[in-house]
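As promised in the previous annual report, we have extended the structural survey to additional targets. Below is the entry for DUF4079 domain-containing protein.
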Amino acid sequence: MPAAGMTATGMTATGMTATGMTVTDWFALLHPVLIILFVYPVVGATIRLGILARERRLDINPLPPTVGVEHTDHGRWVTSGVVVAVLIAMAATYARGGAVVVGGSGTGVALLLAGVGCLVSCLALWRAKGAGLRAGFALICWLGLLTLGAQPALWHLGRSPFDGSVWGSHYWSGVLLCGLLLFAMAAAPETLRSPRMRRLHVSAAFLTALLLAVQAISGSRDLLGMALGQ
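The corresponding structure token record, generated without further manual editing, is:
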């Protein structure tokens, strides 16, 4: 027999489960779960494959040519995983804040279309061949994420880069991380052919690694703040 005020599925009339979490809370947990269980392990493999690809290019280690291809493929999975995780976090934040209800059905449809556009653009990067198409899809995806994040209903630290709190923002470091990953994915063919692009890729990779560390720290901080009701 379900407890008083609770349905047979274990959910209360207010939408809260027996654990004290709402359905939206459980959905929001998909963001850190996806990052921890998928993105970060694949990041480690991508870095390792990148080092091996460099050793092969410099004739330090006799490795098969597939190493570079695997490095590129792993990078694509990292980028796609991060984009999906960001979209999940934004969707959960909008749902928790009631942005769709407050703004009406038109707002909900617009947000949904923007999210779908970001996802489709990211997936299109897997197939696009021309440099212009790849750059266009990467830019559309990144601008879509920026547009979704710029809505007043989505709270985050700082609204301007001149605001000191921006540099501790999980959102802003995440958006910058997405931009770097999308650029690396879009420029992968040029990176393989051009030494100058490879040097730029390595420099961007160091910044990406730093941002991944910042994301881990700021994300843990924000989760703790949510648990404490801050």
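The two ends are 36 Å apart (CA to CA). Residues 195-227 form the longest helix (33 residues). These points will be discussed at the next consortium meeting with the crystallography subgroup.
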